[in-house]
Amino acid sequence: MTILLVNPPGVREYGRSYVGEQKLGDPRLYSSMPMEHLGLMSIKAYAKAQGLEITSVNGLVAGHTSVEETWAAMLNATRSSGRPRLIGFSSIDTFPEVLWLSQRARQTWEGVRIALGNAIATLNYERILRQHDCFDFVVVGDGEVAFTKLALAVVNDVAVDDVPGLARRNEKGQVVCTPSSLVDLDELPPPARDELPTVLADGFAASVFSTRGCPYRCTFCGTGAMSAMFGRNSYRAKSVDSVVDEIECLVSDFDVDFVFISDDLFMSKHSSSQQRAADFANEMLSRGIDVNFMVDIRLDSVVDLDLYKHLHRAGLRRVFIGLETGSYDQLRAYRKQILNRGQDAADTVSALQQLGIEVIPGTIMFHPTVQPDELRETARLLRATKYTNAFKFLGRILPYPGTPLYQEYSDAGYLTAEWPLGQWDFVDPEASRVYQDVAGLIGPNPDITFDEAEAFFSRGSMIGTMSSPAESVNWQAKPRTATPLNGCRRGE
Ligand code: B12
Ligand code: SF4
After folding, report:
1. pTM of the model
2. Ligand 2 contact, 263 CB (< 6 A)
3. What does the pLDDT look like over 273-294, one tens digit per residue?
């Protein structure tokens, strides 16, 4: 009898990874970026501590190029331990892949129960359970306690009523959900490291989580939307000691030299959070741990450069910052107040760079009401970060179902497709033409340089293998189209 956790492959991304030093393969392939699935590995470790062995298959880490390969791995994983009683799938934006695998599992293993977890599942559990009867359960929020209790209930053939954060259909076919309980991160064992050797062999980094959730509510963000579901205390932090213990083990047991701290928000601007970051640096330095690391922060987390100097001494070499757009108004529309009017994000970026900290920018180039000034400003910001990935010029906002942005686009009539990811079209046909030109140039040219893409993007010059002359992005500025929703406009 097997309990199985599965993560399908599915990163179809252009360009380069910032989570290790490795280049992705041919960008036109259905390629996979092998990062550990810390969520599944944390569930696995927790379940083991409760006496339950779980088998896992991670198509991303295994480098699967199709769901058929993942299916074969699932069959293989169950060969020695017997047919599965419960399968838990994780999905970020791999819903079609998960659906395909679930249907296969249903056809193959009579009586198997199937659960789904992670952001899209949490935010959309009602829709998923109403529309897809191949899923029995959705785990809403943290998975460690919920999935372990669910697995024990399934194995022992008892009711699942006391499983926290469990959505399911009741006898009447209605979707019901038990309240989620937020896990105390310090009560969790460290994640299993089953996937790490493969990840390291592929040139990617080990990961550690030190917080969960986020206190902010940027309209496009699944993490903000999930945190809103779970209330004020959903942004949680592990104790500094336990995070540093984990990093120390990664260095001693796996000889890692770079750690990706995978928190959505490692530190906020608030003094307690800044103090925690300082404590973290102190602990790393006092234990003499020789490792570099990267974290995700907000631009307004950079309150005191001395703190970043200190973190740099402790090994901080790279930060991911969601800069999003060069337009102050659009930032406000996204409810991402990281700047004061007149403040230039490039100055903060440059200050960090001068300390020896590389800045990986999160940017959203195109959204339904984008105008030329915004494109130019976002391109300028991109240049300032020195993150020379040409594919950044292609970035389109992704409206994830369950986020406020998705609702806004739906209400405004922008969505051309709804599920499993919102697709949208430009309000201004000129913006659409520019996007098509840029995508037509950069998309099929994996070797295009940032400078070439930038020149084309900014000045409309024609380069390289472009088959048809492209036109300038200098279309006449038009008044911005207001998107009224709850009194504000929102995006990414
Ligand atoms: C590392 C990472 C990746 C890695 C690999 C992720 C992986 N898990 O394999 C890479 C770089 C490949 C990646 C890619 C993408 N990612 Co990503 N990623 C992250 C990141 C930064 C950390 C994940 C992590 O380690 N979390 C910590 C662990 C402990 O938590 P967890 O994974 O969420 O798991 C817990 C619960 O969610 C739940 N759970 C999860 N799965 C399951 C399954 C079952 C059965 C159960 C019961 C429970 C359960 O239980 C776990 C333990 O409590 C998160 C942000 C974040 N901090 O979570 C974004 C995040 C998950 N990614 C996101 C996005 C958008 C993407 C991409 C679509 C980006 C892109 N445009 O290409 C791709 C899609 C990849 C894909 N295959 O679908 C979004 C998802 C937003 C949404 N859907 O609403 C997030 C939340 C970032 C954000 N704030 O926007 N990502
Ligand atoms: S984008 Fe960043 S700051 Fe905004 S809600 Fe998401 S994680 Fe928090």
Report:
1. 0.92
2. no
3. 999 999 999 999 999 999 999 9
